[in-house]
Each structure stands twice: as C-alpha cells, then as structure tokens.
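Final report, Chapter 2: Outcomes

The project's central promise was a pipeline that accepts a single protein chain and returns its three-dimensional structure in a standardized token representation, suitable for archiving and comparison. That pipeline is now operational. To close this chapter, we reproduce one record exactly as it appears in the project archive, with the input sequence first and the structure output second.
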Amino acid sequence: MEKKYYVMMIQKGKSFNKVTKAVIERHVGHLKQLDENGKIVLCGAFQGYPGVAGMVILKTGSYEEAEDLCKLEPLVAEGYAKYTLAVLQVADKENDYLL
C-alpha cells in the first residue's frame, strides 16, 4: 500500500513582519487542533531559510483534505503567508525504499 503525506511549506508574505503574538497564538492553536485530530506528522519553523517560515507535514485522506487544512492556517487565512502543498511518497523498509 502506498503511503503518502502532504507537505505544506509556509512562505512569508509581504506583511509577515506584522505578525503579532495574537496571530502566533491562533497559529499554534490551529496546530494543536490538527495534532489532536491526528493530522500532523511533523511541523516546525525554519531557521536560516529566507522567505520560508516553516513546514507542516499532514496525514490526511486526500490532497483536497490537506489543501482545505492549509487554507484554514491562520497565517495564510489572514494574509501573512502563502503556502505550497506537495505530495510526499514515503520510502521506507515496508516498500523497499520505492525500489
């Protein structure tokens, strides 16, 4: 069985420097909700990667579901950031690293 995750790269928008503590709290609240619902595999902020704020690896049933979750991200929904969404096909022992 093919295992897929969906990788959301959060890219800083022109107004990203105007992000407030309240915006970050909404962002963190969103991440907590996703985690409680079993939708996050991994997430974090990037350091030293200009223009990119962070990444969220989502575990969803479809690309469309992942995209819907990306659009709910407060940094995106409130116009501070944009995102790209990519499908990650997992390579591991179970599938002989896609050989």
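Archive annotation: The first strand starts at residue 4 and ends at 12.
This record, like all others produced under the grant, will remain available to the consortium after the project formally closes.
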